[in-house]
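Here is one chain, start to finish.
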Amino acid sequence: MRPRANVTTWLRRLIDVALATLIVVVLVAVALGKLVPLTGGRSIIIGGSSMEPAIHLGSTVVVFPVDPSELRVGDVVSIQVDQARATFTHRIVTIVDRPDGRWIRTKGDANPDPDPTLVPATTVIGRVELAVPLIGYLLVLLSTLLGVLFVVGLGATLLAIAWLLETQEVEPRAVVGSMSAGPPTGGALGLVPSGGAMAAQLVAPGTRTPLIRDRAAGPRSTMVREHLEHSRNVRNRRVRWLARHQRNARSA
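Its structure:
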């Protein structure tokens, strides 16, 4: 029984950790997708590996607008040359100031060569201030109704499994008092088998009636007041037994 209880407890804790992790990850995804725009920033999902290992594929970067004059070599920026082209995120390797403004050349950390052309600094959407690995996959998933239903279903399944495992855990039973050769004492509690199971029940002294039933034995229908009344009756029987025993000893 003990190894089974330990395995059940270990599995339940593992499910609890998985459920807590899912909740935290979803909250982070919601914060990146909904709260960052409220602060003036923008969340961009990285769909390539050109910035490995600094920024991994599937990461989400948080960028904030930056004045062209504040750009420096080494900054990681997100650029969108025109509306028809996709946004890309690279590192600035060269800054060129021209009469028509500031221009920059960028390069992906994983690319062997810099990008072929200079681009105006005004095309920079923002400078990367934060990169969260792998969260981009969840953002893509939560952008569809099917993905939202999948995440909700996964959380409900983990919660149900955790509840089922918790119901299978064996409650610890305390043994108060000890067995003796004489009559049962007023404060002693014993252990008896619960039906055919190996679990145990707490029983009142001098009786086979359980005070606390284990989970397999059914609901705990005996009220505390009835327990107290039962204990009082047991103590009275013990007093009568001691008196009768003393009379028999004197007569002998």
